[in-house]
Structure formats: structure tokens, C-alpha cells
């Protein structure tokens, strides 16, 4: 399986990976060493907490390495009047009778609370390539879906402001 990422996704991942390897790893190893010196490890909360933080960092390093190793670099080639990657789109949800605005991003930068949805989500994948005024169907699962209409498209680009998901 390949992870579809932008050049900026990969750059942000490399920056985080470098930080975790060069700066954070030695700090966490030192914290484990110091906490171990406090004595009985079976009742040493500081040691357990330090080990958990070290292990969490190592897990994130492995995740980033794997994502980068399997990455396929993508670019937005959408038409000027169609929804593409990093565009902000206002959509009318027919069943809810309300408007929602989302920015379509790569999976590693999605954050629904910030209005960023993955291009691989049901709504994100349904939106790509649509034009203003176009009605489309969003298939959520085999039993449920709904209709929506594109109200507006604000063309965007990956300016790097969307942070990577923590996990």
C-alpha cells in the first residue's frame, strides 16, 4: 500500500523525524536513566512514565519512517473551476438543510475540528473534481449515503499551515 502525500507532507514528516531522533530521543533516554537511579523499579512511577514517553517516541519514529518509505508524491492537477486538493469548499447538505465548509487535504493532515477533511474520506473523495452547482451523492457505507451540492470553491494550495496528525 502506498501513502499519497504532498512534498510538504514529506518535508514536515522529515522535520519531525529529525527532531525526534536528534533532540527528543537523547532527552528521553536520559530521563529513563535518571528515573532508573531512583531505586526499586517495581514501585518507581517516574521510571515507568519515562519508559512510556520513550516508547511513544520510538513508535512515532517508526510510523513516520514507514509513511515516508511507502509514500507516493502527489500534486493537485484539478481544473480551475473544480474541487482539488487544499481547496476550501462550501457544500449544501440536502438532508440537513445546512451549509458546511471544508478544506480537502491529505490523510496525514486531516482535522475535522479545524474544517480539514481527508481526500480519502467519503465526503472528500466525493468532492474531488466537482464544480459549483453540481449535485453529488456521498456514499458513507453500504447502507447510508446522502446528497449534497457544491455552493462555492475557494482555490487553495498547500502552504504548510495544516499540521501533521499526532497519530
Assign an overall shape. Answer: elongated
The largest sheet has its strands arranged as: 5-4-3-7-6
Count of helix runs: 3
Q: If you average the pLDDT, what whole number results?
A: 93
Percent strand: 15-25%
Please state the structural category. alpha/beta
State the share of residues found in helices, binned by percent: 25-40%
Run of helices and strands? EHHEEEEHEE
Termini gap = 18 Å
Please render the helix and strand layout as text.
Elements: E1 3-5, H1 7-36, H2 45-69, E2 71-73, E3 88-93, E4 98-105, E5 116-118, H3 122-127, E6 135-141, E7 144-154
Parallel strand pairs: 1-2, 4-5
Antiparallel strand pairs: 3-4, 3-7, 6-7
Please describe what this structure looks like:
- This protein is of the alpha/beta class and 167 residues long.
- Helices cover 37% and strands 25% of the residues.
- The protein contains 3 helices and 7 strands; from the N terminus they run E-H-H-E-E-E-E-H-E-E.
- The strands form 2 sheets. A 5-stranded mixed beta sheet has the order 5-4-3-7-6. Strands 1-2 form a two-stranded parallel sheet.
- The longest helix has 30 residues, at 7-36.
- The mean pLDDT is 93.
Amino acid at each position: 500500500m502506498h501513502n499519497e502525500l504532498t512534498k510538504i507532507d514529506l518535508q514536515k514528516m522529515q522535520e519531525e523525524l529529525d527532531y525526534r531522533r536528534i533532540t527528543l530521543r537523547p532527552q528521553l533516554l536520559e530521563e529513563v536513566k535518571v528515573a532508573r537511579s531512583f531505586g526499586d523499579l517495581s514501585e518507581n512511577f517516574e521510571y515507568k512514565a519515562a519508559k512510556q514517553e520513550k516508547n511513544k517516541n520510538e513508535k512515532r519514529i517508526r510510523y513516520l519512517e514507514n509513511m515516508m518509505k511507502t509514500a507516493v508524491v502527489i500534486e493537485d492537477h484539478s481544473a480551475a473551476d473544480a474541487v482539488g486538493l487544499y481547496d476550501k469548499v462550501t457544500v449544501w447538505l440536502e438532508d440537513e438543510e445546512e451549509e458546511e465548509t471544508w478544506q480537502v487535504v491529505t490523510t496525514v493532515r486531516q482535522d475535522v475540528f479545524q474544517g480539514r477533511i481527508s481526500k480519502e474520506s467519503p465526503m472528500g473523495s466525493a468532492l474531488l473534481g466537482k464544480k459549483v452547482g453540481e449535485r453529488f451523492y456521498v456514499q458513507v457505507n453500504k447502507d447510508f449515503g446522502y446528497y449534497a451540492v457544491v455552493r462555492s470553491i475557494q482555490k487553495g494550495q498547500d502552504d504548510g499551515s495544516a499540521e501533521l496528525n499526532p497519530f
